[in-house]
């Protein structure tokens, strides 16, 4: 299932939208630029696989909130790594000096240099 989900471009976007760990209403997620029908379908799939939880509030009209699960956060990190790593490798090939400068700044900020 992970492979199938990773092939769907909007899965990464949905998980990114939920990656802060806060509950979000469907309308908040609809601002991600995914067509609403696709978003609804993706959320159902992700919920069925345990990557997203759904909380229906007993209000009128009912309010549905979505939140990423630990399993979903791990999937998000995995997909992000798979999508970003090739870009970093390509950038490093063409701009090695710039990568070194950025790495030094990062290490300095982290206090590791």
DSSP strand count: 3
Radius of gyration: 18 Å
CATH class: Mainly Alpha
Strand coverage percent: 5-15%
Helix amount, in percent?
55-70%
Biggest sheet, open or closed, and with what strands and sense? 3 strands, antiparallel
- Oligomer, anyone? single chain
- Mean residue pLDDT: 85
Q: CATH homologous superfamily - what is it?
A: Winged helix-like DNA-binding domain superfamily/Winged helix DNA-binding domain
Report the principal-axis shape.
elongated
Spatially, the strands of the biggest sheet line up as 1-3-2
Return the CATH topology: Arc Repressor Mutant, subunit A
Unreliable residue runs: none
Number of helices: 6
CATH A-level architecture = Orthogonal Bundle
Structural class: alpha+beta
- Report the span from N to C terminus: 41 Å
């Amino acid at each position: 299932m992970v492979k199938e989900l990773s092939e769907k471009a909007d899965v990464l976007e949905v998980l990114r939208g939920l990656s802060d760990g806060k509950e979000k209403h469907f309308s908040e997620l609809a601002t991600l630029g995914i067509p609403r029908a696709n978003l609804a379908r993706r959320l159902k799939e992700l919920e069925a696989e345990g990557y997203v939880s759904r909380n229906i509030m007993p209000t009128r009209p009912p309010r549905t909130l979505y939140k990423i699960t630990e399993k979903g956060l791990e999937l998000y990190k995995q997909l992000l790594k798979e999508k970003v790593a090739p870009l970093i490798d390509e950038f490093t090939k063409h701009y090695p000096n710039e990568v070194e400068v950025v790495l030094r700044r990062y290490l300095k900020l982290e206090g590791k240099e």
